[in-house]
Amino acid sequence: MSQQKRAIISVYEKKGLAPLAKGLVDLGYELLSTGGTYTELTKEGLKVTKISDITNFPEILGGRVKTLHPAVHGGILARRNEEHLKELQAHNISPIDIVVCNLYPFNETIKKQGISEADAIEQIDIGGVALLRASAKNFESVTVLSDEKDYIPVLDLLKSGKLDLSQRKRLALKAFRLTASYDAAIATWLGTVFEGTDQLPNAIHISAERILNLRYGENPHQKGALYRFVGTEYGFEQIHAEKELSYNNIQDLESAAAIPAEFSTPCVAIIKHNTPCGLATGSSLVEAFNAALACDPISAFGSIIATNEEITSEFVNAVGKLFLEVLVGPSYSADALDLLKKKKKSCRVMLSKLRPEREETSLVIHSVQGGLLVQTRDDTGVDFQKWKVVTDKQPTEEQMKSLAFAWIAVKHCKSNAIVYVQQTATVGIGSGFTNRVDAVRFASHQAGDKAVSYTHLTLPTIYSV
């Protein structure tokens, strides 16, 4: 049996491939490849053996079957012991030492507008997944590369003779995680196609990757980290701060950003401990901020402020010396960022990537003992056509506008909740009480004189959950 070291390279994404392939050739590896990868490598002047030359079988079915053959998988899966090596020799199969493979872009394909079922199905990789799983399973003898980021580091380890079992285990785990998330994406998509439009699927397949280690969880004795679903983008980007986000910051950030997104006019939400302490819309963000702050200026200290329009230097100046944990908006003017860097060094400045046209996760998922509790997202909004006035006196247009605002405001409070509003600004919020009586008392106390009906025009709108 030949002692020639061999590497099979079969990839869809060819970024970074040439330096790796040339490095392997320099180290004495014979390169085996298929289809487009073979063409790409030969263009680089490299000597490459076609997979069909070792299988003695051509690629068939338009490329659907290339590497699914004992000459390939036998060479990958064989243990390097006497029994397996003799069996390989009896069938004229040589071992394969390195597998370089990535997969058809299924996730990217199904996100395209107007993609047909047939086109999506064609992007389900079969041979690539088999190569990755086979090589990852035999990590004791085979090195699997499924991520372009590992190409050069592994090549350097090969050159120095330091590619050991621990490294191969790490690479195998990465490959198995890739195939697991790939299969999860396929199963999830097929579920929506084959099982219809039921918003609660029969099975949920979750694949997520850690993107941020947190100092701790909700409390200092708990561990915490931020994960994002594979194939998606986290909804926020930190663009300034001396401090990283905390677990509680992220929870508050999620709640805060969702509120202004419900309004088409300039809106400011002030959140403390995952609860609104001020919310208002106005003709400008500055006007909305001042109205929101007036609801509860004490609780606003150390809060999170979220907007639905670009944050300008005028807005930053309006916030003034108020201490903030987080500020989040859809964009920032250059002078606003300069001002924040000078005056709000400890404030975590976040860019919201949430857009109305984005397809955000439609399910709300919480872990419970032995399972998951799932519901659809509460994104109904306000539909005046479904409202029914049961009193003799009909509300004015202005009052209906205030009622709509109150409806959305109270939605973002914890039950039992009472919200007092005037026009489109909260003036009293009683949230998270175990009974509505105390919620009313607290909200009324907070509203103060604004809760007193001097005239029918100043009477605040009250809404509860």
Description of the structure:
- By secondary structure, the protein is of the alpha/beta class.
- It is 37% helix and 20% strand.
- The chain has helices spanning 17-26, 35-43, 51-55, 70-77, 82-90, 106-110, 117-122, 127-137, 151-160, 165-194, 247-258, 285-295, 313-319, 334-343, 397-411, 436-447; strands at residues 6-10, 30-33, 48-50, 98-101, 143-145, 208-213, 225-229, 236-240, 267-272, 275-281, 303-307, 324-329, 348-352, 363-368, 371-376, 417-422, 425-431, 461-464.
- It has a 6-stranded mixed β-sheet, with helices on both faces. Strands 3-2-1-4-5 form a 5-stranded parallel β-sheet, with helices on both faces.
- Helix 8 runs antiparallel to helix 10, helix 12 (285-295) packs parallel to helix 13 and helix 13 runs parallel beside helix 14 (334-343).
- Residues 453-459 have low confidence and may be disordered.
Distance between the termini: 76 Å
Number of helices: 16
Uncertain stretches: 453-459
Shape designation? elongated
Largest sheet: 6 strands, mixed
Strand content: 15-25%
Main β-sheet, spatial strand arrangement: 8-13-12-11-9-10
Radius of gyration, CA atoms, in whole angstroms: 30 Å
**Helix content, binned percent:** 25-40%
Mean pLDDT: 88
Structural class: alpha/beta
Q: How do you describe this structure in short?
A:
With 465 residues, the chain is of the alpha/beta class. It contains 16 helices and 18 strands.
Write the layout of secondary structure elements.
Layout (H helix, E strand, L loop, with lengths): L5 E5 L6 H10 L3 E4 L1 H9 L4 E3 H5 L14 H8 L4 H9 L7 E4 L4 H5 L6 H6 L4 H11 L5 E3 L5 H10 L4 H30 L13 E6 L11 E5 L6 E5 L6 H12 L8 E6 L2 E7 L3 H11 L7 E5 L5 H7 L4 E6 L4 H10 L4 E5 L10 E6 L2 E6 L20 H15 L5 E6 L2 E7 L4 H12 L13 E4 L1
Parallel strand pairs: 1-2, 1-4, 2-3, 4-5, 11-12, 12-13
Antiparallel strand pairs: 6-7, 8-13, 9-10, 9-11, 14-15, 16-17, 16-18
